[in-house]
Sequence to fold (295 residues):
Amino acid sequence: MAGPTRDTGSPEASGSMVRRILLGSQLRRLRESRGVSREEAGYSIRASESKISRMELGRVSFKPRDVADLLTLYGVTDEAEREPLLGLARTSNRAGWWHSYNDVLPSWFQTYIGLEAAAECIGTYELQFVHGLLQTEAYSHAVMVSGHRGELPRAEIDRRIALRLARQKLLVSENAPHLNCVLDEAALRRPYGGRSAMSEQLRALLEFSEYPNITLQMVPFDHGGHVAESGAFTLLRFAEQELSDLVYLEQLTGALYLDKADEVAAYQVVLDRLAVAALDEDRTRDVLAELRRRL
Fold:
């Protein structure tokens, strides 16, 4: 199988992302409690209002000096209260492994990879492709080539595939999340890469489906319509109570992150209903094996 090998991995990269989000959320709470606007906060550290917004979302790195100035502005002067937050600032800027792929990685997707690596549970619905965490090298290549119609040089395609395969190590890491993946039957019948690539991909899915931390289900055509009318989505849940669960919606040139409790709950309902509409894990494996035999 062209999937990941067992890897103990280090939580440091995803930990940096978590620390940035935690620090950002605490700075936002402090700012709001003091009635300070983002514009005023930005002025105090010689930055824009949008920079404060990105800091509070954990999407940019933190300079300890800026954090110290913001804490002073927010009235946090006790050293015992300041030091834990300054400590977060100092340790939140360690680059994740994915930063070595900055040449082919859109800035909006860097945030997602960090969150994916930090998640305790990943729930996803896909209708056009096999999910990126489960793709083989040949299948991934076919998807990228078809999507860009020869616009990307081979070297860039190879880098993008390497990034996708590196992400798969998450599934066999020491702190592997549970992946609950629901695939529409269309994703399994669309023949990316031809017979050989699809056979390898279906075999990989059969092997992935045996992983204790992966639940793989398929929604068959004969079920008719179902609740996921809005399309593909991913729902990320985190062990840290301070981190809000969120929904990730990928678009052509960017992505949306939904973190309001009612929005996340609505997508969780859809995911739960999809699981009911889909074939169970054993029947899904039977279909995967049958599709492979027919190739």
